[in-house]
Amino acid sequence: MAQDYYELLGVGRDVGADELKRAYRRLARQLHPDVNEAPDAADRFKEVTTAYEVLSDPQKRSIYDRGGNPLGGAHHGFGQGFSFDDIMDAFFGQGSARGPRSRTQRGQDALLRLTVDLAEAAFGVTHELKVDTAVLCVTCDGSGAREGSQPVTCGTCHGHGDVQHVQRSLLGDIRTSRPCPTCQGYGSVIPDPCHECGGDGRVRSRRSLTVTIPAGVDQGTRIQLTGEGEVGPGGGPAGDLYVEIEVSRHPVYTRKGDQLRCQVTVPMTAAALGTHLDLPTLESDLPEHAGPDTVDVVIGAGVQSGDVVTVRGQGIPRLRGPGRGDLLVQVLVETPGQLDDDQRELLQELATLRGEERPEARLGASHKSVFGRIKDAFR
User: What pTM was estimated for this model as a whole?
Assistant: First the structure.
């Protein structure tokens, strides 16, 4: 051969594969026609590519070192035995997925839904969960191999994890790398897999887990438990477990944000004269609570049906921040449907005193003035 491939790449004759690859990458970055505008850049790039092709192939390198022609008299340069992987490596480091991949991988995250009462969501609770996930195989400690054995180097790819495929084209032979079909890209095989996990390094198991639900969570809130998800293949680190909260319907109260809402119905006389109501607190639903069982709601005299009474600080504890929201009580006024003679006489007397024997009907909202409707729209 007229050219000294070792000198062309700037390496010694005892150069190893890694050092050879680094030398080629360095020169390829400098000489590629898309980067270097020198007139001879393309020719020099073809020369170093041919040199690397020969020296990176043990069989061709052996022929070259003995003084033979490793290319078999075929056309030299760019396109003959050319590897797209090497060019990708030259410009992007590891352009293709070369080398064996690790058997140890991170596990997947898991999602679990937990239904709680409104009081539990509001004030927090501790629940014990039953979780069915992949856990570390204790028999092989995640290695996947039976006790006393270990993985061995793959005989197909010789530990590289990928195999070379050659495809002929107009440019010559194009080499591409693909994951080894024998070892699936791991570079090793397990000839004697663990009888418990079948070589996966993990098994499925049902276990108990205690989760603390903070006060103030709402429907759809997700609580992250780091490292409590699926153990990864090969005994890899576990993913995370997410607990999604579902809040069951309460017979009295509804929730909107940090507000607690309910409706109460009072008789017409109580609405006219005013009254006090004792409502059960949301805390009273909890098995153990230290606060009062009821809250006093003051209904002012003359309250109208649909009016809302606000009780400060009796709503839902805030999830992010101190304090609680408010309790909103909507009042519905009940008109008596059946009256005895005494009751009818008293009401007629009241109507006479108020001048309401034949009251004039008040027009609804649709008959308000234009300014009244605008005022309501902005309210």
Answer: 0.63
